[in-house]
Amino acid sequence: MLSSNGVLFEIWTEMGYGHKERFYQKAVANGFKNINLIFKEQLPVRIRYKNKLIGIYYFDFLIENKIILEIKVRNYF
């Protein structure tokens, strides 16, 4: 059985680089579902400064209510 790291390596091996972040996110979500991992996607988190709301940040994934996973895509050319 794959772990969450195994899912990520499997996606990287199959898809490679150069795709948009949203495609990797869909692949990761599908991979997590396939191994019955508990996760939330696009989890909103309110950012405050001196008790005032200054924005909302969206975590790509919250895994098992413990681990935050942010997917980043970068052009290396």
Describe the structure.
The chain has one domain (4-69). A 3-stranded antiparallel beta sheet has the order 1-2-3. The chain has helices at residues 4-15, 21-34; strands spanning 39-49, 52-63, 67-69. It is an alpha+beta fold. The protein is flat, with a radius of gyration of 15 Å.
* Rg from Cα: 15 Å
Helix/strand-derived category reads: alpha+beta
The tally of domains stands at 1
Main pleated sheet? 3 strands, antiparallel
Number of helices: 2
From N to C, what is the helix and strand string? HHEEE
Give the strand tally. Answer: 3
Mean pLDDT level: 91
Strand content: 25-35%
How much helical structure, as a percent, in the residues? 25-40%
| Physical arrangement of strands within the biggest beta sheet | 1-2-3
Shape: flat
The stretches of 5 or more residues where confidence is low (pLDDT under 50) are none
Distance between the termini: 35 Å
List keywords for this structure.
77 residues; alpha+beta; three-stranded antiparallel beta sheet; 3 strands
Topology:
Blueprint: H1 4-15, H2 21-34, E1 39-49, E2 52-63, E3 67-69
Antiparallel strand pairs: 1-2, 2-3
Helix pairs in contact: 1-2
Give a quick summary of the entry:
The protein has 77 residues and is of the alpha+beta class. It is built from two helices and three strands. A three-stranded antiparallel beta sheet has the order 1-2-3.
